[in-house]
């Protein structure tokens, strides 16, 4: 089976004396899924590289394997392998290896960086020799539902091969720092300008509404505490609870149903500020278990940038720093959430203004631009260290 030929009309970024021209990112998440860390970072890294976002395969090829390509923005393309159905794992890896080799050859990629979100991509990429290997460990993937059996083995191999490691939060850093000497924590950051739009939106709904609305956006999966939401809806039928996001890896029919719970489904990232503007309080109702032990929810600073009070279960990376700085309320169950919500709804204008001042002072130190800029500096430093070792 042969890959189709790829022709890409690409605007060349200005060369930098330290950086390879190309960056290939291997992701377990699809670009058009919920817009989160990979999308935020790659859309900014494309200012420095020809960036390729390589997704996991789709098994819909009829005759031969091929790559589809979509240009998302200047210097950023999403690539999807299309494979025939019914292949063994070894056959899948062999075909993806062939497709990757053809991609590099067709684009004349003599210089490139590999950026991994999933260790599973090692099965078809480890035969190549990039100038730098980066592992952006955004989650403890082995703890997620339906995780591949060999993902922990491949992650150990990736730690050995990686030149530079980032983690998606402080708790994940504490868990992984023993495995690498060049590792740095980069907690969830924020697109303040985008989510700050919620502060300016003053819809007719806001001026006329009579009901309190609590909201959540994100992936609704095994981490989502549906019992907490069900109990909260029962305790306060006068409150509306709006849940935005796709339902994955769990049975949607088992989610709580009530007249005051609404499931909106996945919406475009650009629409989120408008939706959030209609909420009184934002929620992070996650279970406390192995799947959430090391997460750093990106929605925490996004909610705050939208100037929405937040109530969360005691996720470690939410408790510290957000809870300890009194920026977010922490509760263990529906009773706690209800009590916090009633207290937040009674806050005076002066109290809200003081809270928002603290929020803005904290968020002033965060942005995806700042995060990506520091990452670039770490990349340059690591490349220079490798160069010095090679000439020593």
Give a written overview of the molecule.
With 392 residues, the protein is of the alpha/beta class. The protein folds into two domains: 22-189 and 368-391, Glycogen Phosphorylase B (Rossmann fold, 3-Layer(aba) Sandwich); 192-363, Rossmann fold (3-Layer(aba) Sandwich). The protein is built from 15 helices and 14 strands. The chain has helices spanning 37-45, 89-106, 122-125, 151-161, 170-176, 192-195, 197-200, 204-208, 226-235, 272-276, 299-305, 316-323, 334-345, 349-363, 368-391, and strands spanning 22-26, 50-54, 66-73, 76-82, 112-116, 132-137, 164-167, 183-185, 213-217, 240-244, 261-265, 281-284, 310-312, 329-330. It has an eight-stranded mixed sheet, with helices on both faces. It has a six-stranded parallel sheet with strand order 11-10-9-12-13-14, sandwiched between helices. The longest helix has 24 residues, at 368-391. The two termini are 44 Å apart.
Question: Any key phrases for this structure?
Answer:
392 residues; alpha/beta; Rossmann fold; 2 domains; eight-stranded mixed beta sheet; six-stranded parallel beta sheet; 14 strands; 36% helix
Per CATH, the architecture of the largest domain is 3-Layer(aba) Sandwich
CATH domain class of the largest domain: Alpha Beta
Sheet with most strands: strand arrangement: 3-4-2-1-5-6-7-8
Helix content: 25-40%
Number of domains: 2
Radius of gyration: 22 Å
